Amino acid sequence: MRLRRRTGRVMDRDDRGGGWAPVADAPQDAGPDGDHVIDWRNSLAAKRAPTRGTPQHELLRIREDISTRWRATLIATGLVLLAGLWLFMATGSSSDLLVPSPSETWGGAMRLYDDGVLFGDIWASVRRILFGYAISMAIAVVLGILMGSFRSADSLFESPIAFMRYIPATALVPLMLFWLGIDELPKITLIVIGSVFFNILMVADVARNVPKELINAAYTLGAGRLKVLRRVVLPHSLPGIIDVARINLAAAWAILVVAELLAAEEGLAFRIARAQRFRQIDEMFALLIIFGIIGIITDLSLRWLRNRSAPWARA
What we know:
Elements: E1 2-4, E2 10-13, E3 20-22, H1 44-48, H2 68-91, H3 102-114, H4 118-149, H5 151-165, H6 173-180, H7 184-208, H8 212-220, H9 225-259, H10 268-277, H11 281-309
Antiparallel strand pairs: 1-2, 2-3
């Protein structure tokens, strides 16, 4: 039996001493009978084989943070790509696809500002979201914590909530008009109905993920059910609840567009529908950008609140 060492020398087993002895007359790349001796370190397979511990680029590491420089570069790249797509579509727009340029969109926004309706529309939409979504999250936190903590509450509420979740909120518009009239109440109610069932089920999933060991430890220390809910389940679920609010807030804004068609006289969605009747595409684009800016501000605000209230859960 022969073996090639790292030095490239061919070694043969010494039957007398039980060790390995060099074979001086053996060629470096052939065996005693002329067979080819494979040198793994110099083979093509060895060169292509992955090496354990090979450093990876920070952009390709799974669930690892990246530097501030790379983060800023990637954010800027995404914005540049979006702006480039907008300019490309505006340059090649036709009668079938009307896309205003950034300068035309800015002119549309200035026209709304000069008319004195821009900030009034923004506040009207934000006010409806604040009231409607706050009510939705308050209901979701109470029922979600109960469903995630008690099997009895889960069995009682899950079926009707799952049934109501599949009824489109937009299909309730005629009923809202019949039941609640055309004031602010049907608009806020529609936002609540359109988001509350999703919020309840997602908050319940967050509450179910509270480790059982924490609950048992609280019971061991003498805590009662109410104290466990208040001092263990709710604090541990807080970052997840804020994430639920952040994710489903986009759905509330989508419902707002339908809600403001219920005989509204102000609001961003109402102003878009009005601009559509007069083919004011630049104003429509300006209002859509305002929607996006408000969404980014609220998203970042909720992220900050999550990290501030629960720094231990920061990813």
